[in-house]
Amino acid sequence: MSKFILLFFFLFSTTLSAQKDNFNKEIAKAKGDLNKDGLIDYAEVLQDTLSETYPYKINVYFAEANGSFKLAVSSVKAIDPQYPEGKNGYNNGNSFYEIKIIKGILIISNELIRGNFEHKFRYQNGNFELIGFSQVYSDGQGTMGTIDFNLSTGIRIKTTEPYGQDDFPVTNTKKKILIRPLPKMQDFVPFKTEYF
Length: 196
What we know:
Layout: H1 2-19, E1 23-32, E2 41-48, E3 56-63, E4 69-75, E5 95-102, E6 105-112, E7 115-124, E8 127-138, E9 143-150, E10 155-162, E11 171-176
Antiparallel strand pairs: 1-2, 2-3, 3-4, 5-6, 6-7, 7-8, 8-9, 9-10, 10-11
């Protein structure tokens, strides 16, 4: 009977460990002071290369005075997987490019088939909150566009302009769209709304 119980626990623990993620490849790293304490924090993007979708995980670490680092936030949703439908499936055209830390802002940059976009997070109110979204794109049919959305102020500016055509005007649209509360990195999923 005791052998049966030991075998059960061994199989159960093996099954649990097999279900854990395997983010085994470092893809990108950025350093900078994210919480305004004068210490250099860092963020890293890891990839699970054993999963069929090749998902990404972003980890953000705060530096401590003793030289160690403490995990501040981790997310497997903030960056789309490399192959959302699996290696042999549909590719949505989004591709992770890099992370940067500029003036205390953590920026996740992605490329599109025709353009790019960025999500900007700032540490405030005890969380990394989405404070900005920008995008440059082409529709592939003669129109280029840009979007700049400051979620802190709620101001969203969209500009479109033709290329290769002289008789179409440039359009500028400015709207105030307040998103409250601001999305937190640990809950954030790109493009789950029409705005970001």
